[in-house]
């Protein structure tokens, strides 16, 4: 994450996150790097649909596609950019080795990641499958995927 934070600092760009299943792990990995306060504007952990909606996620998207969908991840990434006026927004939703009885879906263990680039009005999306291991190891897997996407965006 250091390379990403340094690149954001040098380009005077900012980032914000809206995370669900990762519980703020991406934001935490950013704040582990010195200088992160220059680029991380805001981070929200929105486990509930209620707070996703309060932060700007369209309820109709959740109702139509479920909270565990790429469409919702995209809404999360763009909503957090609108809320914070950051250059980049990270949205993450999914289930990690646990069926959510409050949000029924056919797909278990799928994590949806969307990074929204406000300056180019473009989404960078990825879908990964949770591994049959601890939540901590799954969060590390998700962080690596977010790092890979951000490097592809920032290092071009």
Measured distance between first and last alpha carbons: 16 Å
Unreliable stretches covering 5 or more consecutive residues: none
Indicate the CATH class: Alpha Beta
Provide the number of structural domains: 1
Enter the CATH topology name: Maf protein
- Can you name the CATH architecture? Alpha-Beta Complex
What share of residues is helical? 40-55%
> Average pLDDT value?
93
Shape: globular
Sequence of secondary-structure elements? HEHEHHHEEEH
- What would you give as the CATH superfamily? CinA-like
Question: What percentage of amino acids are in beta strands?
Answer: 15-25%
Which key terms come to mind for this protein?
156 residues, alpha/beta, Maf protein, five-stranded mixed β-sheet, 6 helices
Task: Present the secondary structure layout.
Elements: H1 2-10, E1 15-19, H2 25-31, E2 40-45, H3 49-54, H4 59-65, H5 70-84, E3 88-94, E4 110-117, E5 122-129, H6 135-154
Parallel strand pairs: 1-2, 1-3
Antiparallel strand pairs: 3-4, 4-5
Task: Report on the architecture of this protein.
By secondary structure, the protein is of the alpha/beta class. The chain has one domain: Alpha-Beta Complex (Maf protein). Helix content is 41%, strand content 22%. It contains six helices and five strands. Strand 4 (110-117) and strand 5 form a beta hairpin. Helix 1 (2-10) runs parallel beside helix 6 (135-154). The radius of gyration is 14 Å and the shape is globular. The two termini are 16 Å apart.
């Amino acid at each position: 994450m250091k390379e990403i934070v340094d690149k954001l600092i040098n380009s005077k760009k900012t980032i914000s996150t809206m995370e669900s299943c990762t519980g703020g792990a991406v934001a935490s990995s950013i704040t582990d790097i010195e200088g992160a306060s220059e680029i991380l504007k805001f981070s929200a952990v929105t486990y509930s649909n209620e707070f996703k909606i309060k932060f700007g996620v369209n309820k109709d998207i959740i109702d139509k596609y479920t909270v565990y969908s790429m469409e919702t991840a995209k809404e999360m990434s763009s909503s957090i950019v609108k809320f914070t006026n950051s250059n980049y927004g990270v949205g993450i939703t999914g289930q990690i080795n646990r069926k959510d009885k409050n949000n029924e879906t056919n797909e278990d263990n799928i994590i949806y990641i969307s990074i929204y680039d406000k300056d180019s009005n473009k989404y960078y999306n990825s879908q990964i499958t949770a591994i049959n291991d601890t939540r901590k190891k799954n969060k590390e897997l998700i962080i690596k995927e977010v790092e890979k996407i951000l490097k592809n965006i920032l290092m071009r």
